[in-house]
Amino acid sequence: MSNSLLPLVFISMALLGSLTCGSLMHRENASASVSQVVDKNNILARSMALLMAYFTTTVNLPDTYWVSTILSDTAQLFIYAVTLSVLVTSVHCRWYKSRSTFEYSILVLFAILGLSIINHADHLILIYLGLELYSYSVIIITNMEHRSGFSTEAGLKFFRVGSFASIIFLLGSALVYTETGGLMLSSLDLFSAPLALSLLSLSVLMKLASAPFHWWAPDVYEGVPTESTLFMVLVPKLALTVFRTKVMIRHADDILQGPLLLVGVLSVLVGTMGAIQQPGVKRFLAYSGISHIGFIVLGFASLSTSGLSAAIFYLLLYIVVSLMSWSVASSVLILSHDSTGIKYSSVKYLSQFTGMGIAYRGIAVTMAFSMFSIAGLPPFAGFFAKMDVLREVVGHNWLAALSVILISVVSTFYYLRLTKLIFFESASNYGNLILDKGLVPEVVSVAGLILVAFILFPQPLYILSIGIV
Known about the structure:
Oligomer: single chain
Shape: globular
Radius of gyration: 22 Å
Number of helices: 19
Strand order of the largest sheet: 2-1-3
Distance between the termini: 29 Å
Structural class: mainly alpha
Strand content: under 5%
């Protein structure tokens, strides 16, 4: 057995262990103490499997459908790190505890298995199978709140967009086979027909929720728990970006430059204008993510090595900043009283963050740093990431670069508005803010330290992005 397949073996072992432990937990005669022990061992098994899966990823093996490069290995490291953070924090969240279900973490591992296939596969059919394994797992995750109409609507919308994107991907793969007689990504080296590449790129752009294919993202993210949203927002973008990068390295067609520039500018515009109008936390972060996807697409539109490195640099920074902001959104609870007693509810609106700067100053400062960074304010790392992307766009279309700069100036408004709510608005209700117990503050703190390191020393990450491409 090839060593490059060991990550899939360890993840499969974690799936079998989770199924076994889950069946023991749900036995009617199982005691509470046994369930707690099994649950802790289950979490430990999943965490160890993710760590072992990364450290057993090896170098590229020729003449196989499964390859390993610096690009795929780096993306795999971020995928496992973010997933491990999501799994650890979800165990302590109220949504997970109230249901005592093990299906959620099993579905997450199935999704990770599919994304690992996308990340390392060099064959279009294998990539399609990984895409479907991820899609069906996420569809079930979005429908786990079966009593909620929002969750059902989110699942149906994700199913529709996932099915349509898969059809487009298969059609593009069929055209590749018709032209080259093979389905290996290496066969794209001598491939000249732009239609197939356009279809493959379209399927990826739909999965990334870039405008004008973004319509499903805000509703889907709002209809699922925050911990599931955190996984859906961050992890698939890594694998899909790796696939798009591998396609561009194999074959970059100038015909796609214009459409990619249009999609990038439109995503920045739609994300910015949409985020300004959103009072809800999840929809605000969803539209903000759409605008950041626009910057990544603009890096791809340059069709150059430096543009790809700028896009990857922006993506890695976006992962860290989004992990901070979404973790804060999931860790803060609202305390309320009624006739039935004390109730805790998650923060749904931006106005409910008022007073967090007094109640939890450390978490509030971390949130402010993340907002300043993704707004692109100097000397934060987000400024350098946006500057690198815009530098590449200026060389191809100065009007697109100017439009993005003007839109980015507008986007700083809603990031600064959230910071104003946290620190400077009336703090009469700050006593109702409760920080959820668990490891979410630790995850936010680690992400904050990484962000500060990016601010002080951005060169290593930038050098890594260049070396990846």
